[in-house]
Amino acid sequence: MQTRLQEMKESALGQISQVTEAAQLQDLRVKYLGKKGELTELLRGMGSLSPEERPVVGQLVNEVREALEAAFSGKQKAFEEAALFAKLSSQTIDVTLPGRPVPAGTMHPLSRIIEEIEDIFIGLGFEVAEGPEVELDHFNFEMLNLPKDHPARDMQDTFYVTEELLLRTQTSPVQARTMLKKEGKTPLKMICPGKVYRRDDDDATHSHQFTQIEGLVIDKKIGMSDLKGTLLTFARQMFGENQQIRLRPSFFPFTEPSVEVDLQCFNCGGHGCRVCKQTGWIEILGAGMVHPRVLEMAGYNPEEVSGFAFGMGVERIAMLKYAVEDIRHFYTNDVRFLRQFNRG
Predict the structure, then answer these.
(1) What is the CATH number of the domain that holds 117?
(2) Residue 121 and residue 86 share a domain
(3) 15, 24, 161, 328: which one has the fewest Cβ atoms less than 10 Å from its Cβ?
(4) Would you call 242 exposed, middle or buried from its count of C-beta atoms within 10 A (0-12, 13-18, 19+)?
């Protein structure tokens, strides 16, 4: 049997060395090492050997098996390397060709402004809050001191879904919801960015959908000086360290007193030009001290605490900062316009 094993080994190794295709190699593997292969047939004859011969033959069988498996593996690896080399040889690369540019996106200018404003107010200790865009009349109007018969609730100004459900006209409802969650606790410092909707004709300065950021502060001994200081800090971080603001009397149902806040014209430095219509100032936002009635409805005692609120249009800030003349550029998705704001 030892002689037969040696003869089979030499025969198999000779055939393996002459194989030229992977399929032929697999056939040989089955022929010699398969369940019905020649090596298996020889193993079945070990029962007829004497006890002294079995260990010797068994060791030889293992050596033959290992030799054949090594030969098969080596040949298989050689076939794989040859196939890979042939594939690489057939695929040439011209390194002199120019590269294909991969277009990369950039942050939308409105998103950049929102992020910048958030960073400024977070640095002042404010928190960022969010709320639903489809809002209840109760939060959008009533909690902000606008009763059912108030002129600001005109059907021509608001997108109503039902009598009690509407698309929010401002982000102030988020302030109302936040005040209720606080349950009269102070201090409260928050801003709430988000989309708002009004029934307006779209033109260069108006849009039926736009973005607002409103802020609210409630604590003990809050006064107009705190409001002015906060907005002046914001203006200088957003538009430059030498910026100045002015406050003009105005009216809003949810603040008393109320003011319009103007920014010194960055184009003429306050001397008067066509940008500021020769006034030296540009209106940027509305603000005021929170109305006592609003505080009461939200669970605060106006005799113990006070607060201020402000609201600004993100598009307005972006148009001033980037000298954009038409608000519609922000929504038309013209890549020529958006490429101007690539951070790179």
Answers:
(1) 3.30.930.10
(2) no
(3) 161
(4) exposed
CA-CA distances (angstroms) from residue 327 to 165, 313, 317, 339?
28, 11, 11, 17
Query: According to the model, what pLDDT value does residue 343 have?
Result: 59
Q: How high is the mean pLDDT of the chain?
A: 86
Residue pair 143/151 in contact by the 8 Å Cβ criterion = no
Q: How many domains does the chain have?
A: 2
Which of 118, 181, 172 has its CA nearest to residue 145?
A: 172
pLDDT at 156 over 70: no
Nearest CA among 282, 278, 250, 249 for reference residue 266: 282
Query: How far are the Cα atoms of 23, 72, 79, 80, 81 from residue 84, in angstroms, in the given order?
Result: 17, 19, 9, 6, 5
Q: Report the C-alpha gap between 129 and 178 in whole angstroms.
A: 8
Domain that holds residue 70: 2-90
**Are 206 and 75 in a shared domain?**
no
Strand 188-197 relative to strand 127-128, pairing: parallel
Contact criterion met (CB below 8 Å) for 244 and 276: no
Pick the closest to residue 144 from 100, 178, 107 (CA basis). 178
With a CB cutoff of 8 Å and minimum separation 6, the contacts of 292 are: 256, 302
The answer to whether 293 touches 145, Cβ cutoff 8 Å, is yes
Strand partners, 320: none
Q: Transcribe 31-43 into DSSP letters.
A: HHHSTTSHHHHHH
* 82 and 114 housed in the same domain: no
- Give the separation between CA 230 and CA 221, rounded to whole angstroms: 15
Task: Enter the tokens of residue 239.
Answer: 């538009």
233 has pLDDT over 90: yes
Once rounded to an integer, what is the mean pLDDT over residues 245-251? 93
Looking at per-residue pLDDT, the higher value among 55 and 192 belongs to 192
3-class DSSP state of 101: coil
Q: Which two tokens stand for residue 48?
A: 């007829």
The SS3 of residue 54 is: helix
Helices (H), the chain: 2-18, 22-33, 38-44, 53-90, 109-123, 137-140, 172-182, 224-239, 292-297, 314-322, 335-338
Q: Is 256 marked as a binding-site residue?
A: yes
Q: Which residues contact 13 (CB under 8 A, 6 or more apart)?
A: 67, 68, 71
